């Protein structure tokens, strides 16, 4: 599985553990993809069946028609997180291919509860995923970190002091 976390400071982080059946694979998985194009770009993150990353991203880029949702192994599933250039965050899945808007802080994957608890206690997305990796057997180091505004070519949001 995986641990992916989006914090309220505009950062997304993910573990890199790859598994094959019930064993840790000999490779690492890249679970966050930044895709830029002429009309902007998106940040994608996938939990679940790693082989579905490219087909799920292409499906989203082609219009995310529910009838055309890519299917993988019938015994597994996947969830695709999409951060759009305007900052909106949506999730789609092979079992429910309709967009669901979510807000930060947000976590997904097998380590999501550990990561959410850590963020609610003040951890960053990176720290939250590190904590999840220390407890969730399906999540592992190293951590991939993406600053959303930088990845999408946006100016970082400044918050005025109270």
Summary keywords:
single chain; 162 residues; alpha+beta; 5-stranded antiparallel β-sheet; 4-stranded antiparallel β-sheet; globular
Provide an overview of this structure.
This protein has 162 residues and is α+β, with helices and mostly antiparallel strands. The chain has helices at 53-61, 112-120, 125-135, 148-151, and strands at 3-6, 11-14, 17-20, 23-28, 32-37, 40-48, 78-84, 89-93, 100-102, 106-109, 144-147. The protein is globular and about 35 Å long. The mean pLDDT is 92.
Topology of this structure?
Elements: E1 3-6, E2 11-14, E3 17-20, E4 23-28, E5 32-37, E6 40-48, H1 53-61, E7 78-84, E8 89-93, E9 100-102, E10 106-109, H2 112-120, H3 125-135, E11 144-147, H4 148-151
Helix pairs in contact: 2-3
Short synopsis of the structure:
The strands form three sheets. Strands 5-6-7-8-9 form a five-stranded antiparallel β-sheet, with helices on one face. It has a four-stranded antiparallel β-sheet with strand order 10-1-2-11. It has a two-stranded antiparallel ribbon with strand order 3-4. The protein starts with a strand and ends in an 11-residue tail after the last helix. Helix 2 crosses helix 3.
Strand content: 25-35%
| Secondary structure: number of strands | 11
Order of strands, main sheet, comes to 5-6-7-8-9
Rg over CA atoms: 15 Å
Helix/strand/pairing category: alpha+beta
Number of helices: 4
**Anisotropy-based shape:** globular
Largest sheet descriptor: 5 strands, antiparallel
Instruction: Return the string of H and E elements.
Output: EEEEEEHEEEEHHEH
Uncertain ranges: none
The termini sit apart by 40 Å
Overall pLDDT: 92
Helix content: 10-25%
């Amino acid at each position: 599985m995986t641990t992916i976390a989006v914090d309220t400071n505009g950062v997304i982080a993910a573990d890199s553990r790859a598994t094959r059946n019930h064993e840790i694979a000999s490779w690492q998985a890249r679970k966050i993809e930044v895709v830029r194009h002429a009309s902007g770009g998106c940040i994608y993150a996938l939990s679940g069946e790693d082989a579905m990353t490219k087909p799920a991203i292409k499906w989203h880029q082609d219009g995310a028609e529910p009838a055309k949702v890519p299917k993988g192994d019938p015994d597994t599933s996947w969830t695709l997180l999409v951060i759009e250039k305007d900052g909106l965050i949506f999730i789609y899945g092979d079992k429910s291919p309709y967009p669901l808007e979510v807000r930060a802080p947000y976590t997904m994957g097998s380590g999501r509860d550990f990561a959410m608890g850590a963020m609610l206690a003040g951890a960053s997305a990176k720290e939250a995923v590190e904590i999840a990796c220390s407890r969730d057997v399906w999540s592992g180091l190293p951590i991939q970190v993406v600053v959303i505004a930088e990845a999408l070519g946006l100016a970082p949001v400044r918050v005025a002091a109270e």
